[in-house]
Structures are given as structure tokens and as C-alpha cells.
Design goal:
single chain; alpha+beta; Phosphorylase Kinase, domain 1; 2 domains; 4-stranded antiparallel β-sheet; 3-stranded antiparallel β-sheet
């Protein structure tokens, strides 16, 4: 469906970039191919205007023959699926505070996308599309399924598809004809958090629709998860869009709330006593003792 290459920028020496190549569906009619190309140009233009620290910057786009290309920042580091797998191999879970830190950064990126005019949906949120840079910054990558919610317009995404089944809501299985909105990203967000916190991929939405009991509560798998986080994740994973949080900010509040900043109290500083001085530094004790004797002698002289 597409390829991504690590490329050298020939204009800016030393800059590495990610080059995404997408080939048009040759089974489409000439009219549909033309519409797909125009749609690609419109969406690429929108992506190129985006500027957010948790999103890779799209710096260029072009087409050659039946292939369309996006030029984006190369994001170094490991993706969250790799970090999760490493924790699983060590027989442990990812730390909840770390996952919530990543969730807060992801929420920033999605709030930014959803607040655009028209709103932009990512539609392919999953652990392997979330990369952690060496300096701790989360990046939401792979805009292959991005959809621009232009009212009254038939949308053909840059890369045709429906997302990864484990994280895809039911309404997205209809492809571009299905009704997807910001709540579709919220479902994928919740499913991603479920996987990161439990080391266990959730059953896909179709399986859950047929067998609701297949979704195991998070705390039954990882008891270290807080009840608040479990409730928020399961809320985001509700099968019907109307039963999910209606915005990323509502989900963020459910996950994080007004988490107080915990400041560790400073230890009380107690002046050392006689025994501590003698034990820690005999030489220092002798100096203080000699000074004390001099003071006593001086006071006695004054009294006389």
C-alpha cells in the first residue's frame, strides 16, 4: 500500500528525512484517479501547514507518474510498541506514570489536529505509530490514513485503508463511506493505552461486538493500574461513538484529572551534637575544644 524511505536532503546537507511513497490504485477510473490526485494535493497542503512539537513536519510533497510522495521529518528513537515489547520480555509492565506522560503528549497532538478548520483525523493511532525521541518527546507519525473533515465533500484519504484492526472502531470499517469523527481517534487512543498498560492487545471491535465479555478489565491483567485510568480507558473504548468521551480534552481530564504536583519535603537539618562531632571528625572536635578553653580563659581574666 505504500513505502517509507530514509532519505538525504540534497539541498540541506546533513538533513535526514522520511520519504513516503504511495502508488495510486490503478483499478480506479481515470476520473477517480484524477480526483484522488487532487485530494492528495489538498491533504498534503493541509499537512504541510501543520506545526506542532508532537507531529513530524511535512516539508514537501510531489508526484511522479502514478506515485505520490510526502517529505517529512525523520524521527529518531524507538516506537512505543518496541518499548512495550522490551518491558514484556523483562516480565514487567510499562510504568503507568510514563504511559500517562505519553498520553498527555498524544492528547496535545490530537487536540491540535482536531481543532483545525476543518478538523483533521489521524485514524491510525497505535503503539508503532508513536515514537519516543532520545530527548523524551513523543511524536505521532504516519499520516497515511489522515482524513480532512471537509463538509459536503467526498474524502479519499492519502493512503486507502481502514487502520489496524486492533485499534479501529466499528464505524471506521466502512472505509471513507463510514461516519468517522474525532471520537474515532478517541477509540484508537483508548485501545492503544489498553495495549501499553497491559502488554495484551485488545480484541478488535468486531469481536467485541459479537462477544462483549472478550474485553478483560485492565486491572485484572495489571493490578498496578489505578482505577481512574482503567475507567477512562474503557470509556474511550466504548463501541458506540455516543458512549465515548466527546473530545480529547474530556478524555484527558478523565485520565489525568487535576493531578497535584508532589513536592518531596526537604529533610530537617539537625545540628550535630557532641557525639556526632567526636565520631565524624576528632580533629575538628579538638579545634572546637581548644577554642572553647580560650574563650573560658578570656572570660575568667575579665572577671578578675
Amino acid at each position: 500500500m505504500g513505502s517509507i524511505y530514509l532519505a538525504d536532503d540534497l539541498r540541506l546537507e546533513g538533513r535526514l528525512c522520511a520519504l513516503k511513497e504511495v502508488e495510486q490504485d490503478r483499478t480506479l477510473s481515470p476520473e477517480m484517479q484524477k480526483e484522488a490526485r487532487e485530494q492528495f494535493l489538498r491533504e498534503a497542503t493541509v499537512l504541510a501547514r501543520l506545526d506542532h512539537p508532537n507531529l513530524p513536519k511535512v516539508s514537501d510533497f510531489f508526484s511522479i507518474g502514478a506515485r505520490d510522495y510526502l517529505v517529512m521529518d525523520f524521527v529518531p528513537g524507538k516506537d512505543l510498541r518496541t518499548l512495550m515489547s522490551e518491558a514484556h520480555q523483562n516480565g514487567s509492565f510499562l510504568n503507568e506514570n510514563d504511559v500517562l506522560n505519553w498520553a498527555s503528549q498524544l492528547a496535545d497532538a490530537l487536540s491540535y489536529l482536531h481543532s483545525q478548520d476543518p478538523p483533521i483525523l489521524h485514524r491510525d493511532i497505535k503503539p508503532s505509530n508513536l515514537k519516543m525521541t532520545p530527548n523524551g518527546l513523543l511524536k505521532l507519525v504516519d499520516f497515511g490514513l489522515v482524513k480532512v473533515l471537509a463538509p459536503g465533500e467526498v474524502t479519499i484519504t492519502i493512503l486507502q485503508g481502514q487502520g489496524t484492526a486492533l485499534y479501529t472502531p466499528l464505524e471506521q470499517y466502512g472505509g471513507d463511506s463510514g461516519h468517522t469523527d474525532v471520537r474515532s481517534d478517541i477509540y484508537a487512543f483508548g485501545s492503544t493505552l489498553y495495549h501499553l498498560l497491559t502488554n495484551r492487545p485488545p480484541f478488535d471491535a468486531r469481536e467485541r461486538f459479537l462477544h462483549p465479555e472478550s474485553l478483560v478489565p485492565l486491572r485484572e491483567i495489571n493490578p498496578a493500574i489505578s482505577p481512574r485510568v482503567e475507567r477512562a480507558v474503557l470509556w474511550a473504548m466504548s463501541l458506540h461513538p455516543d458512549e465515548r468521551p466527546q473530545s480529547i480534552e474530556i478524555l484527558r481530564q478523565a485520565l489525568l484529572g487535576d493531578r497535584p504536583i508532589i513536592i518531596q519535603p526537604r529533610p530537617l537539618i539537625r545540628k550535630p551534637g557532641f557525639r556526632e562531632i567526636l565520631k565524624s571528625s576528632p580533629d575538628q572536635f579538638l579545634i572546637w575544644a581548644a577554642a572553647g578553653l580560650l574563650i573560658v580563659s578570656f572570660v575568667a581574666t575579665l572577671i578578675k
